[in-house]
Write a structure and sequence with these properties.
Strand content: 15-25%
Distance between the termini: 40 Å
Helix content: 25-40%
Strand order of the largest sheet: 4-10-9-8-7-5-6
Largest sheet: 7 strands, mixed
Number of strands: 15
Length: 433
């Protein structure tokens, strides 16, 4: 599988530190370079193979080097890579039509971007323009990207380097079920308390709130979420005030949760969202994102606008092939089936290891909250040593994030769980010393 480089990871890391920002986060005490992949596996520059349970931060949605996607990209690369939205694109229209239909939003319009951050920026631009207000509601513990605007609505302070913002953000409860002042309540009582909190915030807001933005399952926050139906209950309040609901599906979209194609569908009792943002998985690693919105909301901008790289020929070719593969092979069902088995296995492991406080999530979007941040670091390192790549998150960096490609097999789920079990045992032993 490829040629192993003569430069060590340590040598590359030294060059990295000399030229890239100090604040650019990397995993592991000794960071690795991933050079190639196939299926659910990747290889590093020193030739070591890993089972990938993080997929480039949930971007490799179907599989590494998926032949159908690779062929579509290769064919398009031989024609033209780029033209911009100033010219028509049959592929972009095809993809937009499919996403508009799948979104569940009536009379939908689609705008393509290059990332989830840019998609959320666009959603905020639409909402604030449509409502003529810069007031935004967001959930505590949230994360919506790294741009200046997205940071301004991020409730997870570990990823918020500045308090400056062009927006006035009001944070509400509901993103974390298992901790906080409402954790002891039943699901119904929890929802009622969060709705009361929302009503109270709106009573204090001195202006016309533009929108509520929420991740159905919080990604960087450690795969936390409120009970099903919470956002539907919020929407009933929002609708009374004319406030828009933006669902951030950058991590929860495309069937990853198994039970639903979009995360918002677990909260759909009061109808679909007004705006939906997506990215990551649709491109299977290509730089692709976008926004879906009702026509009146999308068309509320009155100034000229384009996207230089959004919906480019190369990315739409890959995304179309990726989406077709996902639908043809019903990967949502695979996420539900294999994810359910994996979650049960992790719950059994957790029951025997006090380092794990909680197993949460659904489908192939699973989180393990650990007893302390140092435990998460220990497990991350030990899992890599065992040949497994996982992610980390949570408000205190105390959660493990597990999100393999949606083609994960039962055997691979068992293999990954076995490596995690060993890594968790090693962490428990280290913490006990």
């Amino acid at each position: 599988m490829g040629t192993v480089t003569t430069e060590t990871h340590a040598q590359l890391h030294a060059r990295h530190r000399a030229v890239l920002p100090d604040w650019l986060a990397t995993y592991y005490r000794e960071p690795i370079e991933i050079t190639h992949g196939r299926g659910r596996h990747v290889w590093d520059a020193e030739g070591r193979q890993y089972l990938d349970f993080f997929g480039g931060i949930l971007t490799t949605m179907t599989a590494h080097a998926l032949p159908e996607v690779t062929a579509a990209i290769t064919e398009q690369a031989g024609k033209i890579l780029h033209s911009s939205t100033l010219y028509l694109s049959g592929q972009a229209v095809d993809l937009a039509e499919r996403i508009a239909h799948l979104s569940g939003i009536p009379d939908a319009r689609v705008f393509f971007t290059t990332s989830g951050t840019e998609a959320n920026d666009t959603a905020l631009l639409l909402a604030t323009t449509y409502r003529k207000s810069n007031q935004i509601l967001a959930l505590r513990n949230s994360y919506h990207g790294r741009s200046f605007t997205a940071i301004g609505i991020t409730g997870n302070t570990a990823w918020s380097p500045t308090s400056l913002s062009p927006l006035q953000t009001l944070y509400v409860h509901g993103g974390v079920r298992s901790s906080g002042p409402f954790a002891h309540l039943s699901d119904g009582e929890f929802i009622a308390a969060c709705v009361a909190d929302l009503e109270d915030i709106l009573g204090q807001a001195n202006g016309q709130v533009a929108a509520l933005i929420a991740e159905p399952i919080q990604g960087v926050g450690g795969f936390t979420s409120g009970p099903d139906g919470l956002l539907a209950a919020f929407k009933e309040v929002l609708d009374r005030h004319g406030i828009l609901w933006i669902t951030d599906e950058v991590q929860t979209g495309w069937g990853r949760t198994g039970e639903h194609f979009w995360g918002w569908q677990a909260h759909g009792q009061s109808g679909p969202p007004d705006i939906l943002t997506f990215a990551k998985g649709i491109g299977n690693g290509m730089s692709m994102g976008g926004v879906v919105a009702r026509a009146d909301v999308m068309n509320s901008l009155t100034a000229n606008s384009i996207s230089t790289f959004g919906g480019s020929p190369i990315t739409t070719a890959g995304a179309l092939a990726n989406l077709q593969y996902l639908l043809d092979h019903d990967l949502q069902a695979n996420a539900r089936r294999v994810g359910g088995l994996l979650k049960s296995r992790l719950e059994a492991i957790a029951a025997a290891n006090p380092v794990v406080r909680e197993v949460r999530g659904r489908g192939l979007m699973l989180g393990l909250e650990l007893s302390e941040p140092s435990a998460a670091n220990l497990v991350l390192e030990a899992a890599r040593e065992g040949g497994l790549l996982i992610g980390k998150g949570g408000r205190a960096g105390d959660a493990l994030r597990i999100a393999p490609p949606l083609t994960l097999t039962v055997a691979e789920a068992e293999e990954g769980a076995a490596i995690l079990e060993v890594a968790l045992k090693q962490a428990r032993e280290r913490l006990a010393q």
